[in-house]
Write a structure and sequence with these properties.
The structure is a homodimer. The first copy, chain A, is of the alpha/beta class. The first copy, chain A, has helices at residues 8-26, 31-47, 49-66, 70-76, 80-95, 134-145, 159-175, 192-198, 213-222, 245-257, 276-289, 327-337, 350-359; strands at residues 103-108, 114-121, 124-129, 149-153, 183-185, 206-210, 235-239, 266-272, 293-297, 303-304, 318-324, 342-346, 364-369, 386-388, 396-398, 404-415. In chain A, the strands form four sheets. A seven-stranded parallel β-sheet of chain A has the order 10-9-11-8-7-12-13, with helices on both faces. In chain A, strands 5-4-3-6 form a four-stranded parallel β-sheet, sandwiched between helices. In chain A, strands 1-2-16 form a three-stranded antiparallel β-sheet, with no helix packed on it. In chain A, helix 2 packs across helix 7 (159-175), helix 5 (80-95) packs parallel to helix 6 and helix 10 (245-257) runs parallel beside helix 11. The first copy, chain A, is globular. At the A-B interface, strand 2, helix 10, helix 13, strand 13 and strand 16 of A face strand 2, helix 10, helix 13, strand 13 and strand 16 of B.
Chain lengths: 418, 418
């Protein structure tokens, strides 16, 4: 969508300059001011829910006219319960410990220097998202908590909802005496704004894309600034020969069917050959009975698997299943076909679990637990701005703490280097 | 320099594939194996110093024929003492605690999950450097210690010295049973190899350039992979009105004159107006007496400063000096002209020092200490692969620990998400 009345490069340059200027002030905003901004914003959202719902109705109408899928429409839609959950998220982030200024580590040197490593904000975060209006509040709040400025670019579908929620965040900033430019929402639906953001080196320190593979892939390919993201969540579960029957049946069912559309949903079972005919087949039968299409090799599934099923993210009631010779073969399969997001081992054998933890290198490794726990809230972060599968800076769920950097504060007493 | 016999893209693709394959193995190499590789390499370097010095003589001859500056020739030259210091560096890194596998943090969740954050290697590091042969050993050793594979691309001037040192590192890897591809040296002087490295996304996780502003600037501008670097070290010293006379005189003299060519050398003094005529002028006079050219505004220096002196990295016996209205003005000057490397405040006023630490955001902030302490060794890291002024992942001196990432290891007991 193009907006012919707006000079997008000029608009984005102004937004960027405002963010940079505010970042220096936000970096030493007091924990109380930040918590107050979040609480007031939460109050404003709850008090203003009628108006937010009206704005959301406009978006829903636009979405229908654009022929959005039912899944997209569902993500877009707000109701009282969803607004309540946005408000709860803000309050939970407000209540978290402030990460900025914390002394992460400190030590003395023989020179007499005392060295502290102290947590600081990253600076300016860009968030590019699609239809979920709650991202406006979650991402804005997490960036604010960590002392950052954020430039939010919501999807054109959620334009009115995001604008209404953003207005409440601004109320919070005003009430706390913090700069308005701490949380900016790009005020146009023109897609050129995204291209500008991806090239704003020197202004944006990191970009977080939230949405489908198309959006994330484009951002990863084109961004000139660092990106925290995961392109796919191809989560594997290795069912070891020493797996407990009941735990394994329960965990696999949960990991596949609790919600199929999230990045932590299991997409491939690897079954040790010694239990293929026993527990392995039973779990496959469980899944088929629950309505899951199992594409199988070595066990009897719904249909035979072919090579294209390895490394596939279905996000649906479909799963691949493969019998493997041993744990090494399972590791090899995960290394070859995984997306470094989340993998689980089901076993009562502590040695096998330790090997799984040591030898694999996904962002999240689970032992006897459902891959659906791959989520910032379930990790105790209050909320998450996304899940990162890269190895630079932030890995796994990205909360306020992962949106910080550090500096060294060094104390001497007229100390000189010899 | 071009090498017409070599297909550089094919060569670099092979080196990259070897590094990726070895990285999976290195990631769970035992701490003992890594320490052994480093000790054996140290022994091999000391035992083989005659041969290393002969190789170095070839490089010196090449350097003379190319008309390298005296400073470059000095960096290039090896002697027994410098080889001893390379050996000491390897032994010190060998003796350090192994960072990989350490549990950084751990907590329980109400769901029953136990979550550990565990340190892991980054993967594959690319190091692009100029004439210092010791970088081959330091960078190779730090990457190895952190369980990474490294691709070293030394300057054409130090080609023979680097090759000889690299051979000793390979001896260490062999003795410890570790893959040779853990430390690869690009075996050509062809500059096209650098361009290839900068574009090896998917293979190289981070590039560390070591050298002058020309090299670092080119890498920062052209790299498609993340970079740990500092372009300049424009270090400021703010002499507060409450500075102690003797400490201030001693620290400024050390920060400017101990070594002028390093990135931690002071380049600009900011002097509170209340002490401009007293301590400020005295320090300027000290510096002039020591042979430093002081380009001054508000005090009497060697010559008047002009606008081009703010934010200038002299790397020489030259310093800028400016009288400021108050601490806020000093902070503003540093924000406008600093390079986020290292700044110091000299004061006996704890409140002023706390403000300096809170409100500025350089990688290193010092109180009553010389900026020349900006160094991995002086921070207790044994050695450093460089100093980073960016805020992503690593900041300040980059040692083995900064060359790691983390993963989450999560333990349940058949735990499912509701």
């Amino acid at each position: 969508m193009k907006d012919h009345d707006t000079n997008i490069p000029a608009l984005m340059a102004t937004i960027g300059a405002n963010a940079k200027a505010a970042a220096a002030e936000m970096a030493f905003a007091s924990p109380d001011a930040k918590a107050k901004a979040l609480s007031v914003a939460a109050d404003a959202i709850w008090a203003g829910r009628e108006s937010i719902l009206s704005s959301n109705a406009l978006d829903m109408e636009f979405g229908r006219s654009k022929g959005l899928s039912a899944a997209m429409m569902d993500r877009l839609e707000l109701d009282d319960a969803r607004i309540q959950s946005i408000v709860d998220g803000l309050r939970s982030i407000a209540a978290q410990e402030d990460p900025v200024g914390a002394v992460i580590d400190g030590w003395e040197m023989p020179s007499g220097l005392h060295i502290d490593r102290v947590r600081t904000p990253l600076g300016v975060i860009g968030v590019i998202y699609e239809s979920r209006p709650n991202v406006t509040a979650d991402a804005g709040a997490l960036c604010l908590k960590a002392g950052n400025c954020v430039i939010l670019r919501g999807g054109s579908e959620s334009f009115h909802s995001a604008t209404a929620i953003h207005a409440c965040l601004l109320e919070g900033l005003h009430a706390a005496g913090l700069p308005e430019a701490a949380i900016q929402l790009v005020p146009t639906r023109d897609r050129a704004a995204v291209g500008e953001m991806l090239a704003m080196t020197g202004v944006i320190d990191v970009i977080v894309p939230r949405g489908g593979k198309g959006l994330v892939g484009r951002v990863q390919a084109d961004a000139r600034v660092p990106v925290f993201a995961h392109l796919e969540g191809i989560c594997h579960i290795y069912i070891d020969k020493d797996a407990d029957t009941e735990k394994a049946r329960k965990v696999v069912m949960n990991a596949k069917t609790r919600r199929t559309g999230i990045c932590g949903a299991a997409e491939c079972l690897l079954i040790h050959k010694d239990i293929a005919n026993g527990l392995g087949q039973q779990i496959v039968d469980d899944l088929i009975a629950a309505g899951v299409e199992v594409r199988a090799e070595g066990v009897t599934g719904s249909v035979p698997a072919d090579a294209s099923d390895w490394g596939k993210e279905y996000l649906d009631m479909i799963i691949a299943a493969r019998v493997v010779e041993d744990q090494d073969a399972a590791h090899d399969h995960i290394r070859n076909f995984g997306s470094s997001h989340t993998e689980a081992i089901l076993t009562e054998n502590a040695k096998a679990a330790a090997r799984f933890f040591n030898e694999l290198d996904s962002a999240i490794l689970m032992h006897n637990a459902s891959t659906q726990f791959a989520d910032g809230g379930e990790f105790g972060m209050g909320a998450e701005i996304g899940i990162a599968t890269g190895k630079m800076h932030a890995r796994g769920p990205v909360g306020a703490m992962q949106l910080t950097s550090y500096k060294y504060c060094v104390r001497g007493d007229g100390t000189v280097r010899s």
